[in-house]
Specification:
This protein is of the alpha/beta class. It has two domains: 9-167, Cytidine Deaminase, domain 2 (3-Layer(aba) Sandwich); 173-259. 48% of the residues lie in helices and 26% in strands. The protein is built from five helices and eight strands. The protein has an eight-stranded mixed β-sheet with strand order 7-6-5-4-2-3-1-8. Strand 2 (33-41) and strand 3 (46-54) form a beta hairpin. Helix 4 (173-199) packs antiparallel against helix 5. It is globular, with a radius of gyration of 21 Å. Keywords: Coiled coil, Hydrolase, Metal-binding, Metalloprotease, Protease, Ubl conjugation pathway, Zinc. It comes from Phaedon cochleariae (Mustard beetle). It holds the Pfam family BRCC36_C.
Length: 260
């Protein structure tokens, strides 16, 4: 049964938000998913999300995602490792997934899944990123995000929106590692998917056909994910180096003024 205790606010680190959006934009045909890590203020009922785990999809679907117990266990181990490394509380406190080409609002399946998690952790939270929504008037793609929990309605579970605050933060090393690992996860998903198809067929022509689609999928990942990611990280590095030079110049001026 869902507890009466519920979240009042979720504070999401900007670098985690960037990872979630980057992950959501990798495909417009299936939903993606991941788990959110951080700590919860049990007194104020406020979640602080500072890291995430990108999950490997064993079954790609355009309208639903599922998180296996094994994935939850792996994410919990990762949270424990981060906790020891950062010397602060860190655990799995939520999940996220995407809605390509549809609205940001959770479906009844999403709300049911959220309700299930809340039976184990009352302050567990869900984030949904709506991507690839075309605005014909502005000729742009919109990205929307909603933060929600499930609550007990009159006859069924209902969505309850939670205030979401995106907090400015630098790109932490552990989140940088998560971004860098994204192409490897996507490639492994494609390899597993096409290998399963090859195992189910003895036809040489069908096998050749599957190999060609696997190659196309790999090319798509390189051109649409890896290259833009490298460009983005390169721009970040340039910005950081410029900032370092600016600060060094400022320090030098302050030292000269103090000598005078």
């Amino acid at each position: 049964m869902i507890s009466e205790k519920h979240l009042k606010k979720v504070i999401l680190a900007a670098d985690v938000y960037a990872i979630c959006v980057q992950h959501a934009l990798t495909t417009e045909k299936q939903e993606i998913m991941g788990l959110l890590l951080g700590e919860v203020d049990e007194v104020e009922c406020i979640s602080h999300i500072t890291a995430c785990v990108i999950l490997h999809r064993s079954d790609k679907q355009p309208d639903r995602v599922e998180i296996s117990p094994e994935q939850l266990c792996t994410a919990s181990v990762h949270a424990e490792q981060l906790q020891a490394k950062l010397d602060r509380p860190m655990r799995v406190i939520g999940w996220y997934h995407s809605h390509p080409h549809i609205t940001v609002w959770p479906s009844h399946v999403d709300i049911g899944t959220q309700g299930m998690y809340q039976t184990m952790e009352p302050l567990f939270v869900g984030l949904i990123f709506s991507v690839f929504q075309n605005d014909s008037r502005l000729r742009t793609n919109q990205i929307q995000v909603t933060c929600f929990q499930a609550s007990r309605g009159v006859s069924q579970l209902e969505r309850r929106e939670v205030e979401l605050v995106i907090q400015s933060s630098p790109l932490q090393n552990y989140n940088l590692e998560g971004i860098a690992d994204l192409p490897r996860i996507l490639i492994q998903e494609e390899v597993d998917c096409h290998d399963d198809k090859d195992n189910n067929t003895q036809d040489e022509l069908a096998s050749l056909h599957n190999d060609s689609f696997k190659t196309l999928a790999m090319v798509h990942i390189v051109s649409k994910v890896v290259r833009p990611l490298c460009d983005d990280l390169g721009e970040r590095m340039t910005t950081v180096n410029q900032r370092i030079k600016s600060l060094e110049k400022m320090i030098k001026q302050l030292q000269e003024n103090s000598d005078d």
